UniProtKB/TrEMBL annotation:
Signal peptide: none annotated. It comes from Cellulophaga tyrosinoxydans. This is Transcriptional regulator, BadM/Rrf2 family. One of its GO terms (cellular component) is cytosol. GO terms for molecular function: DNA-binding transcription factor activity. Pfam families: Rrf2 (PF02082). It comes from the Bacteria.
Length: 165
C-alpha cells in the first residue's frame, strides 16, 4: 500500500511539474484562441477584423493585431487589406498543425528545452527531473505535431470539445 501511495505521489508530482513547465505562453494561448475563433466564424467571403475577435476572445486589440499579423506572415491564417479586408482561414490554413503556432509564437526551444534550463540535458545526460517529465512531454509535443486546426474545429463542431467564444 505504501508503494502505491508513493508511486501515486510521484505521478502527481510529475504531472504537476509538467503542467507548470508546458504552460504555453499567454501569447500562444491568445494565438490559438484567435485561430480557432477564425476557423469557426470566418470564410473567404466573411473576413473578420481584429477588433471583432478581441472582445469574444478576451485578447487586447492591439496585442491581438500583432499576433494576427505574425500568423498571417507565416501563412497560418490568411488576410486581405482594404475596405473589405480582414482575417480568415482557408481549408489549407486549417491543415496547419498546432506545433507550428507554438513554435512561431514561443520559439522551437520552449517545449524541447530542459525543465531546469540545463543546457546539456538529454536522455544520455538527464537532469534530476528529466525522467519525470520526459515521456509526458514527448507525448504532448507529438500531439501538437499531429493535431491540426481542422481537428480541433471538428471536435468543437461535434461537441467533443467546447470553445465558449
Amino acid at each position: 500500500m505504501i508503494n502505491v501511495i508513493l508511486k501515486d505521489k510521484k505521478v502527481f508530482l510529475s504531472l504537476y511539474l509538467f503542467k507548470i513547465y508546458v504552460m504555453l505562453s499567454i501569447s500562444t494561448k491568445y494565438a490559438i484562441k484567435a485561430v480557432l475563433y477564425l476557423a469557426v466564424n470566418s470564410t473567404v467571403d466573411k473576413k473578420i477584423l481584429a477588433k471583432e475577435i478581441s472582445a469574444p476572445t478576451g485578447v487586447p486589440k492591439a496585442y491581438l493585431s500583432k499576433i494576427l499579423q505574425e500568423l498571417s506572415r507565416h501563412d497560418i491564417i490568411s488576410s486581405v487589406k482594404g475596405p473589405n479586408g480582414g482575417f480568415y482561414l482557408t481549408a489549407e490554413n486549417q491543415q496547419t498543425s498546432l506545433i507550428k503556432i507554438v513554435d512561431l509564437i514561443d520559439g522551437e526551444h520552449r517545449l524541447k528545452s530542459c525543465i531546469l534550463s540545463i543546457q546539456n540535458c538529454n536522455s544520455d545526460h538527464p537532469c534530476p527531473l528529466h525522467n519525470m517529465v520526459g515521456n509526458t512531454k514527448s507525448r504532448f509535443i507529438s500531439k501538437l505535431e499531429t493535431t491540426s486546426i481542422h481537428d480541433l474545429v471538428n471536435d468543437i463542431k461535434i461537441g467533443k470539445s467546447n470553445l465558449p467564444l
